[in-house]
Amino acid sequence: ADKHNCAVYSDGTGWCWGRNDYGEFGNGTTTDSDIPVEVGGSSKWKMISTSSNHTCGIKDTDDSLWCWGYAAAGRLGNGDTSSVVYDTPQAISGGGEWEMVSAGPVHSCAIKKTNKSLWCWGAGSRGQLGDGLGTTFQPTPVEVDGSDSWSVVSAGDQYTCGIQVGGGGYCWGYDNNQQLGNGADDTWQMTPSPIAGGMTWKETPAAITAGRDQTCAIEIGGAGYCWGDDTYGQLGNGATTGVQHSPQPISGGATWKTMSGFLFFTCGVKMDDSGYCWGRDNAGELGNGTITGDQESPSALDDGGSSWN
Fold first, then answer.
1. Quick count: other Cβ atoms within 10 Å of Cβ 54?
2. What is the chain's pLDDT, residue by residue, as a tens digit (309 residues)?
3. Burial grade of 285 (CB within 10 A; 0-12, 13-18, 19 or more)
4. How many angstroms separate the CA atoms of 203 and 164, rounded?
5. What residues contact 10, with CB distance under 8 A and at least 6 apart?
6. Which of 73, 164, 223, 268 is 20 to 30 A from 216, alpha carbon to alpha carbon?
7. How far is CA 232 from the centre of its chain?
8. Angle at 5 between CA 189 and CA 97, to 5 degrees
9. Among 274, 288, 277, residue whose Cα is nearest residue 214
10. SS percent in the chain: helix, strand, coil, step 5
11. Distances, alpha carbon 43 to alpha carbons 13, 25, 35, 57, 298, in Å
12. What are the contacts of 133-138 at 24+ separation with CB within 8 A?
């Protein structure tokens, strides 16, 4: 997220830090903190996903799905579209058991545990909910078009990408910088559109990441690919190539474990647990120990040789 972060500790408790002006910590306050504070309710969490003004998480005890923070546009999925702040976790409408959740800036998506169906809620005017309707707001979860089973989902800035069971990759929503990767000059897609190239993608968490205007994913063999806006080198292909309509290989030929896209830059962890970032570097966001300008290829973190997951 661009203002706060959250993580699950080894004992299952959830912790957040940074800005909390919209109750993003879920601890019953709107007080900022520069150290981790525990999410309210003393719950154990399986995973937590953060975005600009809200947070979502899946409880470890019963796989229930909860969101908290700013309710505008229906992004909490609790039936409310007003500008209300919920500073404690709110149960998602409809209940159910869930496997994965991804919080985007104005919408979120999650995969059900029982049948691996994919559901989204929040702002949908660019088609990012994938239900084929392009509805302005959906305050409760709506199923993504089609009955396919899904393994991974990532909610980006007005678009969404996911990997189906079997490794097929799809994106939908806003395509102003070709971040959908379908090889076409689309305005937007209201239902899942296949990623160009016909590749089989990994079905592991963080195997695909929808950022601001760039998307990256890991092919089944471990090779990394990115597409979309490359103004600052955030595609990591060794050049600033404007926009790319289809997957482009990341420079270096490495095998990757995870990817995560942000505002104008991307980071990833290789299979040897080393961390790298690439793209815009005007405030030290690449973590390579210097602010030397944009990096068009993966740049190693200045981390003393730490191992990352």
1. 32
2. 568 899 999 999 999 999 999 999 999 999 999 999 999 877 899 999 999 899 999 999 999 999 999 999 999 999 999 999 999 999 999 999 999 999 999 999 999 999 999 999 999 999 999 999 888 899 999 999 977 899 999 999 999 999 999 999 999 999 999 999 999 888 889 999 999 999 999 999 999 999 889 999 999 999 999 999 999 999 999 988 889 999 999 999 899 999 998 888 999 999 999 999 999 988 888 888 887 788 999 999 988 777 887
3. middle
4. 8
5. none
6. 73
7. 20
8. 60
9. 277
10. 0, 45, 55
11. 6, 13, 19, 11, 38
12. 133/190, 134/190, 137/73, 137/74, 137/81, 138/74
Judging by DSSP bridges, how do beta strands 224-229 and 214-218 pair with one another? antiparallel
Please give the single-letter amino acid code of residue 127.
G
C-alpha to C-alpha distance for 173 and 127, rounded to whole angstroms: 4
Q: Which long-range contacts (CB under 8 A, 24 or more apart) does 219-223 make?
A: 220/167, 221/255, 222/254, 222/255, 222/256, 222/271, 223/249, 223/250, 223/253, 223/254, 223/255, 223/256
Pairing of strands 188-194, 208-210: unpaired
Sign of CA dihedral 249, 253, 258, 263: negative
Spatial contact of 120 and 130, defined as CB atoms under 8 Å apart: yes
The one-letter amino acid code at 204 reads: T
- In the chain, the amino acid numbered 203 is E
Give the separation between CA 120 and CA 142, rounded to whole angstroms: 5
* Tokens read off for 304: 């003393």
